[in-house]
Design brief:
Blueprint lengths: L1 E2 L2 E2 L6 E7 L2 E7 L10 H13 L8 H19 L6 E5 L1 E3 L4 H13 L4 E5 L5 H14 L5 E5 L6 H8 L7 E5 L8 H8 L2 E4 L6 H10 L4 E4 L1 H4 L1 H14 L3 E4 L6 H14 L4 E2 L21 E4 L1
Parallel strand pairs: 5-13, 6-7, 7-8, 8-9, 9-10, 10-11, 11-12
Antiparallel strand pairs: 1-2, 3-4, 5-14
Helix pairs in contact: 1-2, 3-4, 4-5, 5-6, 9-10
Length: about 300
Amino acid sequence: MVTAHGTTTDRRIIEITAKQDGFVGYGEAAPLPSFGAETFEETQTALTEWSKNPDSLPDPPVARSGAAAALDHLHQSKSQTPLQPGAVAVQALIGGLETASVERQISDAINDGYRAVKLKVAATDTASDIERIDLAISLSESQVLLRLDANGGWTKRQALAVLTSVEASRIALVEEPTSDPSNWGKIKEETGIRVAADEHLTDRQQIDRLIELEAAQTFVIKPSILGGPPATRVIAALAATNDIDIVISSFLDGPIALRTARDLALELAPEQIHGLGTAPLFVEDLPQDVQPINGHLHRL
């Protein structure tokens, strides 16, 4: 997967088990340093220390999120209240840099029943981005949402150059168009495209700044790096108070974290189309319950 943050070719995952009174909870930690997280070794060290002193969650964000998820799952297990079956719609992630790859990936997504696709942009040059977006627009049927994700890789000038050169009305939103959220209001004003925050949802101070700036109309929340289920619920509540939509998103997660994210999506925004259709990106087949079926993740 190639993004404005670089290339990701593999994922190393730590599975976490929390036990109490015969009940078990599971979590997962899989850091991506290129996305601002700690290293795998730092995650491993932090979780080892936490296992010796479980009264205090680890400090590094991915380790903290995985530990919090395991404890949340343990609490759910102890309640002995089974979660009801359900399904949430998910988007297909389109990472192709060549137009032929984009065409194939979008066509496959539509044929597989996805109601939204997210095209990665800002990893090459603006001319290529315009060409790929135009192709995505032409391929996407009217009922299929097109979302863009720049991962903060454009300058304000580049973002406006690209987004004013394409059919903006066909773009549902753009994530992190630039690295400076003070630019985002101008981008929305000049293009009419809704802006989503993702990487800038790092802490309460940053979230409050986004709200103050009215920079984003959607928060893309990654439980696996933002503090697990408890922090996700807090951010979702802040978003709701300020009329901001939420999308629950994968951090290129493994199966345990995808289940956690799926359950949060069902809990917090069951009608939204979420960023959880990432299992097909793995060479190794992930379990069936985290594989999208007709553009949905199912809780059985």
